[in-house]
Amino acid sequence: MIKILVDAMGGDNAPQATVQGCVEALENDKELYLILTGRQNEIEAELNKYKYDKKRLEIVDCPDVIDMNDIPTEAVKRKQSSLMTAYWMLKKEDDICGLVTAGSTGATIVGGQLILGRIRGIKRPALCPAIPNNRGGVTLLCDCGANAECKPVMLCQFSILASAYAEAGFGIKNPKVGLLSNGTEEHKGDPLHQETYKYLSQMQGINFVGNVEGRDIMLSECDVVVSDGFSGNVALKAMEGCGKLVLGVMKKEFTSSLSAKIGYLFARKAIKRMRSQLDFEKFGGALLLGLKKVVVKSHGSSKASTFSASIANAASIYRNGLVPAVEKKLEAIDFSTLIPEEN
Amino acid sequence: MIKILVDAMGGDNAPQATVQGCVEALENDKELYLILTGRQNEIEAELNKYKYDKKRLEIVDCPDVIDMNDIPTEAVKRKQSSLMTAYWMLKKEDDICGLVTAGSTGATIVGGQLILGRIRGIKRPALCPAIPNNRGGVTLLCDCGANAECKPVMLCQFSILASAYAEAGFGIKNPKVGLLSNGTEEHKGDPLHQETYKYLSQMQGINFVGNVEGRDIMLSECDVVVSDGFSGNVALKAMEGCGKLVLGVMKKEFTSSLSAKIGYLFARKAIKRMRSQLDFEKFGGALLLGLKKVVVKSHGSSKASTFSASIANAASIYRNGLVPAVEKKLEAIDFSTLIPEEN
What we know:
2 copies of one chain form a homodimer.
Chain A: E1 2-7, H1 16-28, E2 32-38, H2 40-47, E3 57-61, H3 72-75, H4 82-92, E4 96-101, H5 105-116, E5 126-128, E6 130-132, E7 138-142, H6 152-170, E8 176-180, H7 191-202, E9 207-212, H8 216-219, E10 224-226, H9 229-253, H10 258-277, E11 286-289, E12 294-297, H11 304-319, H12 322-331, H13 335-338
Parallel strand pairs in A: 1-2, 1-4, 2-3, 4-12, 7-10, 8-9, 8-10
Antiparallel strand pairs in A: 5-11, 6-7, 11-12
Helix pairs in contact in A: 1-11, 4-5, 6-7, 6-12
């Protein structure tokens, strides 16, 4: 039995999409047990639409919901909110394995740091989505928004966190790690990235391949791209924007003439596969890495299928021992020797 | 008569593509006069393939060529190279309006700073490409690689440079300016971006609309997105990578089955328009803004049509008075009052 907490109230389509996602996840994974936090009556009203295994789902009633406009450092104090209630349960109850939320990214990060807590030795948690690449697989981009300001030691730790995720989440052996910069040459970047390059080159336990550029996130042999949270966020959203533009243009063009419509009918399977390859959500949300337990941040606009994929992702990563793998990697590295204290 | 210098030896496909591009540009614009720098015999061998107006083209023989592996600060000393010869002529001869090169970006930036020189008051030149957006127009991203490290005053000046370019290059009146950050809220970003936000909000002469995210480069109402050169480069290349992935998937999927191939035949016009909307090069290279004359950096992999578009872009921007427009905007702002010296 794998117990996962679900913030049923987080996200633009909650609780409809979250509850439906839970039902789907339970159907797909018979070992799963879900604890939904949120407004009980609203959740039950949604649950009543479906058949599901009632023995593997419980609800914890929470009157309060944190929304996108709340300031994260204030929101973390609202213990009766669905997200913070979940974090407190996750911290206190040993048999609960993880948490999935489509709520406020900021509140998820702050709650993770202040309530659940970091893995011993980790300076900061990092947000790490899986991005579709041209090999038909994924590239993990870490950090992409939890830390707008970084120090070299943080970037070095992100490389460990994301390498462990590549192994536990996607079965990638000895994942190739690149450092996101404004060119591939060693001297590229600002002092933060130049320093980080130096340390990553010396670090044991990761497979560092050097600097990579924005294009290499989707087009290279890299499995992990390490980034400060500012540039990583910019890159992620730039790619999402480009993907959205393409899908919008596709929709417009394939309805622009009779001939194009006929073309669409013949090519619709191919087009569907194209759309799927640009789907940033199919790999089940972004992981908030570096915390004591598995936390998955599903996209704010998650539909039921996306949310269900995020739950499946959390369960799978727990099964594959992500957190113990990170701890083991950390044991092998003495950061205080590698990197001067001020960095 | 508009005299433009062309580095005939710069880029992956030089001098074939550059020379062909020059011939096309001369054909399209009867007012154009081109001065090609490079190895005379190689250029002439290419020119002999075409008919062109010999009275509007001259060659300046340069034995040396700077390539992508040369260190820019060293390359700038090579006065007999096609690029630096062009920069020296551009500096010295009043009747020459601009320069187009597909050569090393680094050498183009360093040569621009050290030989041609900046517009009075401008701290640093910035690289500014035009990126296709969902309105069928362009968004100017400035800086996207000339300055990996920035100060707030530089970002504020980029907003002026790119606003003037939006007006002179694309006829956009009162262009909307966004600041690239990791979220739209005012407090987002690192101290550099938080400070810059404050100054941009107070600045006269630009139409600042607040923080924007990576997705907003292609998907928003913004005409200009201001960025430090590190994140701007990451964003640009992330979008290019995503675009390339899409085109690659499209090619693969539309040949994946008989049905898809038939679909392609019917929809090929629509697909061609889709490809064109993702073409980052069709708007004629990136401008190196902030210099005393017009300098256009065409993509290293420029084909003849791309290179010809870059030449046309240089001529058009000169005609529309980009540099005087920047000077006029600068006169209206007292940076030393707006921004403390150390920023």
